[in-house]
Amino acid sequence: MADLDSRTLDGFRIRPLRTMEQIAAASAVLSEVWGGDRTGMPPNLLRALAHVGNYAVGLYAVPTGDPSAERMIGASVGFFAAPDDRSLHSHITGIVGDHRGRGLGRLLKQHQREWALTRGVHRITWTFDPLVARNASFNLRVLGARVGEYYVDHYGAMDDGVNRGDESDRIFAVWDLDAPAAAPRERDIVTTVEVPADIERLRRDAPGEALDWRYRVREAFLGLTEDGFAVAGFDERGYLFVRSGVAS
Questions:
Q1: Of 2, 66, 75, 95, which has the most beta carbons under 10 Å away?
Q2: What is the enclosing helix (H) or strand (E) of 100?
Q3: Residue 76: strand pairing partners
Q4: β-strands 229-235, 6-7 pairing
Q5: What whole-number distance in Å separates Cα of residue 172 and Cα of residue 178?
Q6: With bands split at pLDDT 50, 70 and 90, how would you rate the model's confidence at 99?
Q7: Which of 200, 198, 187, 183 is closest to 239 using CA atoms?
Q8: Is 148 exposed, middle or buried (0-12, 13-18, 19+ CB in 10 A)?
Q9: Are β-strands 123-128 and 88-95 bridged in parallel, bridged antiparallel, or unpaired?
Q10: Smallest Cα–Cα separation from 30: which of 8, 65, 56?
């Protein structure tokens, strides 16, 4: 099966990780994104995942007129879930700071989608921090993923530069690749759960306030879920809850 090799008009290319040089570069890029943590995706683990056919790609910036000077500026790694699930779990995706906000995250996700579909996989899952508003907006509004579960302190204590000092609550996102994105109807929205505009800044400048947000959002999510409500979307108000079973 041919590997997908994608390049945008703006000079970016996605390529599968094959050599140890590429794998070491991807590990270093992901370490940079996560504040210097070298344990999140070490080269030996990444090598093993790539070697047996999982999703492992690098995102390269390709200077105009000089393809030989391409530089890896992002990476994405996923692995297949249990056979009955027929899904790919996207474990980690990162883009270095000076290239964020340019649509490259969407480029990677679309490449991942095409890669999965060519292998007969029609569902991708991943986890994300419920307090990071831009990720919630991208995952739920742009891609059209849905919220599967809310996990409390899912990874335990994490010592990277992004998560250090916080508890690792995560939302389990489910992306049905054949289903179009759809926002909930306004009349179906029962309540919303607000999140901070910039949790990363709060973690740096006001860690106590950041932790308060963690507990407040956790309590709201778990309480609403227990009472029979479900997340149907995200907008400037935060997470949009509807009664379970209500169609968008």
A1: 75
A2: none
A3: 57, 93
A4: unpaired
A5: 19
A6: confident
A7: 183
A8: middle
A9: parallel
A10: 56
The CA distances from residue 164 to 94, 96, 205, in Å, are 17, 19, 13
As given in the structure block, the two tokens for residue 24 are 């070491």
Nearest CA to 73 out of 101, 48, 49, 110 is that of 101
Helix boundaries (H) for the chain: 20-33, 43-51, 104-117, 133-136, 199-205, 207-226
Helices 20-33/43-51 angle, 10° precision = 120
Which pTM was predicted?
0.90
Contacts of 69 (CB under 8 A, 6+ apart): 62, 63
Q: Which of 127, 119, 224 is nearest to 174 (CA)?
A: 127
Instruction: Note the pLDDT tens digit of each residue in 169-200.
Output: 999 999 999 988 788 999 999 999 999 999 98
Task: Kindly state the tokens that stand for 142.
Answer: 């742009």
Residue 142 banded pLDDT, cuts 50, 70, 90: very high
Whole-number Å distance between alpha carbons of 139 and 112: 14
